[in-house]
Amino acid sequence: MDLCVIGTGYVGLVTGACFAEMGNEVWCVDVDAAKIEGLKAGKLPIYEPGLDEIVERNHQEGRLRFTTDLGEAMAECDVLFIAVGTPPLEDGSADLQHVLTVARDIGRRLTRYSVVVDKSTVPVGTAERVRRAIQAELDARGVSIPFDVVSNPEFLKEGAAVEDFMRPDRIIVGTDSEAARERMAELYAPFNRSHQRVIYMGVRDAEMTKYAANAMLATKISFMNEIAALCERYGVDVENVRLGIGSDQRIGYHFIYPGCGYGGSCFPKDVKALIAMAQAAGVEPEVLTAVEERNAKQKRVLEEKIVARFGEDLTGRTFGVWGLAFKPGTDDMREAPSIPLIEGLIQRGARVRAYDPVAMDNARRVFPAQWFDEGRLVFTRHQYDALDGADAMVLVTEWKPFRHPDFAAIKRLLKTPVIFDGRNQYDPLQLERLGIAYVGIGRANALAGEESRAVAL
Ligand SMILES: NC(=O)c1ccc[n+]([C@@H]2O[C@H](COP(=O)([O-])OP(=O)(O)OC[C@H]3O[C@@H](n4cnc5c(N)ncnc54)[C@H](O)[C@@H]3O)[C@@H](O)[C@H]2O)c1
Ligand SMILES: O=c1ccn([C@@H]2O[C@H](COP(=O)(O)OP(=O)(O)O[C@H]3O[C@H](CO)[C@@H](O)[C@H](O)[C@H]3O)[C@@H](O)[C@H]2O)c(=O)[nH]1
Fold this sequence. Notes:
With about 450 residues, the protein is of the alpha/beta class. The protein has helices at about 10-20, 35-40, 50-60, 70-75, 95-110, 125-140, 160-165, 180-190, 205-235, 240-245, 265-280, 285-300, 300-310, 340-345, 360-365, 370-375, 405-415, 430-435, 450-455; strands at about 1-5, 25-30, 65, 80, 115-120, 145-150, 170-175, 200, 320, 350-355, 375-380, 390-395, 420, 435-440. A six-stranded parallel beta sheet has the order 3-2-1-4-5-6, sandwiched between helices. The chain has a six-stranded parallel beta sheet with strand order 11-10-9-12-13-14. It has a two-stranded parallel ribbon with strand order 7-8.
């Protein structure tokens, strides 16, 4: 099939590349000329494991093409994916300006029956707004061309995007049109070889399904982070509790890892957008608000633990931070817990030395240039350089090379052997034996103070 994917970010590029890999002819369109030029020259705008290989192969073989000219792409395609960003507005609701701009652009160029597929995460009712925006342009042109708008939300995770796209748990297709359903069935047929993965439903049902999925996952994480806080007060190791409850199939092991808060471009914004949708509909979003508040607190937890140990004023202290990206496997810094942590430490007078395997270029744009100029924030070439002379190590993102490090080297490099483990990667007892103080999230010794013992007794 001939497809056009509009928006060449994390979702658009993966969608385009994976459909091309399945033998389709794909045009990827973006307004960002530098991104498109880079892609034409074989330079990927994002880090995503395995993506470079399929982009390169399909580009070379002519199935995957890049352009800033939507008209050029639409001349050959009649399935048009919208995969542009839907960032939060001030009030938390989703900003649909890019989606609606694309809809108008499509309406100005439509020449034959086409299926417009909304892959961006959008509030219930957006497909209808997209339909109206396209129709308004057709009316302005004085032409009558049939088209359908389908909701096909994306569920890929960054860091595993290609794998998730190629082997999805499910593919949600929201449409009331038989013609559109047939096109989507044909397009997704290669992904259904082992079993049927497509779930058909109404357009509005599909739009809500995406938000409900992300909100449920965020709820599991915030719930677990609250349990972790309780565990600390009662001298309980939350890691044992996690294993204990995860073994119940009704709960499961996924998304119950406590940590220093969820980040990324999806959970924070989608929970906020769902809260805004609830408020607009007169439904009190009690659970969602709590999920959001717990996460905001959780992003301050590492700083609080550092302050509990070193005091409010961190002048003269240096902290070695491992991991900047919001999760391993990506260079995405959107809503990363490392941001408030580093800002908090530097504002308290500390210096920070940080290392991330792939996100340092993006992270450099997040923090004030002055901090780098003054040496208050240094990005190092190697993970161990970040710890050289630091008062403590802080693990924020659990990249694989951080999971089983050389603790003897860590102890040698640190001024005081203390590890703040924001992802509960390490064994507190092992570190204790090595003479390294350990502070995790919800671990039995996390407070290591009288307060925790007092409550436990
Ligand atoms: N990132 C994820 O893991 C993920 C997963 C599932 C769903 N989503 C959803 O998918 C959507 C896209 O997310 P993303 O992370 O890929 O965003 P992104 O910011 O990485 O990419 C969006 C791209 O759209 C381009 N764009 C903006 N306006 C355009 C226009 N008028 N015409 C053509 N291109 C335009 C931008 O230049 C950018 O390259 C969002 O709604 C998001 O919530 C994201
Ligand atoms: O048990 C867990 C699992 C995740 N996280 C954190 O949650 C955030 C999000 O992680 P993850 O869901 O793996 O990455 P995303 O790429 O943001 O993917 C989510 O958001 C996408 C965009 O909507 C959806 O498509 C995916 O299905 C959904 O998992 C990260 O900060 C993780 O560190 C935890 O703290 N504990």
